[in-house]
Hints:
Strand content of chain A: 15-25%
Order of helices and strands of chain A: EHEEHE
CATH topology of chain A: Alpha-Beta Plaits
Distance between the termini of chain B: 39 Å
Number of helices of chain B: 23
Shape of chain B: globular
CATH architecture of chain A: 2-Layer Sandwich
Largest interface: A-B, 22 and 35 residues
CATH class of chain A: Alpha Beta
Radius of gyration of chain B: 31 Å
Helix content of chain A: 10-25%
Strand content of chain B: 15-25%
Number of strands of chain A: 4
Number of helices of chain A: 2
CATH superfamily of the largest domain in chain B: FAD/NAD(P)-binding domain
Strand order of the largest sheet of chain B: 8-7-6-16-27
Structural class of chain B: alpha/beta
Helix content of chain B: 25-40%
Distance between the termini of chain A: 36 Å
Shape of chain A: elongated
Largest sheet of chain B: 5 strands, parallel
CATH topology of the largest domain in chain B: FAD/NAD(P)-binding domain
Oligomer: heterodimer
Amino acid sequence: MPVRIWRKPLDAEKIKVKKAEVHILKNQCKGCGFCIEFCPKQVLETSDELNIKGSHPPKIVDETKCALCGFCTAVCPDFAIFTIEKDCKEGC
Amino acid sequence: MTKAELRETEKIGSVEDIRIGVYVCHCGLNIAGSVDCEDVAKFAADLPHVVVSKDYRYTCSDPGQELIRNDIKESKLNRVVVASCSPRLHEPTFRRVCEEAGLNKYLFEMANIREHCSWVHLRDRKSATEKAKDLVRMAVARAVLLEPEKENTVPIIRKALVIGGGVAGIQAALDLADTGYHVYLVEREPSIGGRMAQIDKTFPTMDCSICILAPKMADAGRHPNIELLTNSEVLEVKGYIGNFKVKVLKKPRYVTDECSACGECAPVCSVTVPNEFDVGLATRHGIYIPFPQAVPSTYIIDRDLCLNKENIIVCDKCVKACERQAIDFEMNPETVELEVGTIVAATGADVFDPASLVEYGYTKFPNVITSLEFERLINAGGPSGGHLIRPSDMKIPKTVAFIQCVGSRSEKGHLYCSNVCCMNTIKDSLLIKEHWPETKIYVFYLDIRAYGKGFEDLYRRAKKEGVVFIRGLPAEVIEDRKTRNLWLVGENTLMKKLYRVNAETVVLSIGIEPRKDSDAVQRLLTLSRTQDGFFMEAHPKLRPVDAPTGGIFLAGCAESPKDIKDSVTQASAAAARAGILMAKGNITVEAITPRLIAENCTGCGVCAKICPFNAVFVDEESKKAEFIEAACGGCGTCAAGCPFNAIKMRHFTDEQILAQLNAATKENADKKIVAFCCNWCSYAGADFAGVSRMQYSTNVRIIRTMCSGRVAPKFVEYAFSRGAAAVLVSGCHLGDCHYINANYQTAKRVEKLWKKMERLGLNKDRLQLEWVNASEGERLATKIKEMQVIVSSVNAEEIDNSKKMMRKG
């Protein structure tokens, strides 16, 4: 059905897409880059920052893009990254 | 061949025995109005082998047919020539007449003196009569060389394919399935239902669209004779009437049949996108069902949206939510091969995108909506729960203005009328009045076309309800920045007054247009399209649901814009037509396939290489070409390409075509254009020019071949050697060839001829190539007019030169 689709859906506000908080334990990271490579939403990228291990931990580009799939946590060999759902009771 | 037929063939071998009857038809005044039929009949009487020559008022009438039958018996005619309308119209009629009188139908020939003569030369009786004589002379010359043929019968596979699962496709599939045939119903979208599923109410009865469609969808879904292939596309169609081989790509849903449509999966999915079904007015998730009544009632994963790309599963929320474990990311696309006897094309239509009409401000002003968006908004199951809110502030508008003919009946969109928008608007206005009676409604129109059963009543009801109809479309829609209301300014053409109307919502009544990918379907099924872009029927009056290609039928908006009732009617008709073929169980194939002249064949394999149907191969032992009759389409490009004259195309032999050329160039050749037109596109285009009374010069002589690929270079050379001023080769557009790609050979051959002409110092403009489809009569007429300039510029010396050169060549 190729019809022009351009409007913001009327229910865009109602559809609750869960907001995420991404936490990186920088000093635990060995800089393998798996999380950056496998993130389906390209939330992360390499940073110039050096941690105590002398490696570059990832940095967050756009936290709002995170879909909370949790794959970064699953692939991280160093247990250095995890995501939690934002508490939006008071708005966020 | 039976013994009797063999005897007949042998008898014809000696030229003296040929006895031709010529019948010149007046067709009332259709022919007699601009051609002196009596004179033509007198002229024909003196042609060699003609023993009977008569003119008759209506040759196709019963007494006309009787006349021919009697003459065949009494005057022992063994050839019949009727000079009347196009063979595309009445050749079957007269062939039957011949058969009834015991004459093989391949011994009949037609001269087209109506579409190709009287109708296109309405104001030049003398020249038209001369042309008619020439056309009869050509037909008689060809008739002398005609041979009796026997047709093969081929069995028909008793299965049907329906492409498109809108209301037309569903109806066609149900009718065929109920008749007892196995049906494959292929739909590109995840669910059947099509456009009708999106609509709220239907005119003129105002019943709920999905309420009457959903049971039909369910019937189609569970019918034992219907195999539903949704989320699937037809990739390839090969074969011919009765024996199509179809490849269908089944795209994976990533959700198995185990799905119970409980809907637990969608809310947990973290990706969203505007829902196509709601024209983007609502949101759907990466895993979704297009609409609640969808058939099959199975969810689907949009892998373009899903976080899981290729082989990496990063997100398994839906998998965890699905109790029945119906989600399977491992599903792969699958190609299924089907064998069917008939095909119904019900591929539907697109809607016009009004963003191109900047004066109406669609996509610029939020409160300008399309009629399709209106349908979703007014629908109780839609994104606003049936409240006609306006997008800017979600409030219900107090004034609504409809603008008609958006994209229809105008140079700015399409020239044709989209057929449904007038009644749709009237229905919509009544729906608004039903829910919010106080709403002020304006309809700006050009003409209100309330032509169908019950339509006028509905129109009157709307007027009675207080809907204001104003004749004259607004010149512009202007938005009030503060209120987001819209000003419509234009001229009321009945009152001759300017108007300036304020409305809170403007609905653009958008037209229907051919599918963007129509050319893909066209190529798959070798269909033709009209100038408007919709698929063309075999005959607009008498075969309105048959496609020009045998075994293929059309239904719904693919053929032209139409409402639900007409779509359903046409679908049932298409199913009946397909059913007739399949009930018979077999079909006779026209005896126009090639025969090998074995002593000439060197086994070079050129024919095998150029055959579009792979119906020719060179036998390894005998080193001779062999034909697979059942696969052959009969285009004749093999015969035209054979360098050793080893292929004889039955009913379109070299000798027959050369005899026509001889006759066409007998008199005043230096003023004539010889045109070769393919049966399916260009000859039909010339017929269309005739039906539309497009006038062009009288000096063109059209020779019909099945395909432009049949036109051997030697025909063109022969025409020039006979002193013809110009030659036109005309066929279907490249890519639209009725014989897959045979016309690419035409293009190559003409290129070569041009080069040769240049080499010989001849003016290569005298040979023209033009692609003309069946609806492009105008294009053909224009081409002939253009060529007239070339003809008048060619001098006697040039003609002599080409005569000499081409004879040598």
